[in-house]
Write a structure and sequence with these properties.
signal; Thaumatin-like protein 11; Thaumatin; six-stranded antiparallel sheet; Osmotin/thaumatin-like_sf; 185 residues; globular; five-stranded antiparallel sheet
Length: 185
């Protein structure tokens, strides 16, 4: 049963636009929630993600709190592996116990696309939507949105085939024109 505190939804958007395939990625965060949010960028390389070689850390300042309707741009390294989420006061430093968006941007070579997904495995706290120009959009607005769009609460099976994961940007296709929407903070 969905906890009532998550029944009221708000909206937060993140747009991603790298300058080049090998350039750093610019994320434009836009808070479309009805309340102030605190976005967090967390590295997961060599931790939640087994990727170590070639993956870079995010070393810039964390985004500042954002009032409803506010926007800001952050830049992550071209080969970053990590998560972006909205801290609700209950999330761990890497998004533990919360809904998160996950990005593997270290793999955009000629054979392996860069990838992104929505994960509610550790708990549903926020709805998300991730879209990319020329790539499939994933949306999850509830704890039971299904494997087509997000990893479900408590399910570490990978949905049997990692169906929530979307790949984009292999070869000379730039990982660009992305949007990430957060709802339910």
């Amino acid at each position: 049963m969905l906890n009532m505190r998550f029944a009221q939804f708000s909206f937060f958007t993140l747009s991603l636009s790298p300058l080049l395939v090998l350039a750093d990625h610019q994320f434009t965060l836009t808070n479309r929630c009805g309340n102030t949010i605190t976005p967090v960028i967390a590295d997961t390389r060599c931790g939640y993600s087994p990727r170590c070689d070639g993956a870079a850390s995010y070393t810039s300042a964390q985004p500042s709190q954002m009032a409803s309707g506010a926007s800001q741009t952050v830049t992550v390294p071209s080969n970053w592996v990590g998560r972006i989420f909205a801290q609700n006061g209950s999330c761990g430093p890497k998004g533990e116990d919360c809904s998160v968006t996950e990005f593997n941007l270290d793999s955009g070579d000629a054979f392996t696309p860069q990838s992104y997904d929505i994960s509610n495995i550790q708990g549903f706290t926020q709805s998300f939507q991730i879209g990319a120009a020329g790539c499939e959009t994933v949306t999850c607005t509830s704890a039971d949105c299904g494997c087509k769009n997000a990893y479900p609460v408590g399910d570490i099976s990978g949905c049997g085939n990692d169906s929530p994961v979307r790949g984009c940007g292999a070869g000379n296709v730039a990982f660009s024109g992305k949007t990430l929407s957060f709802t339910g903070s």
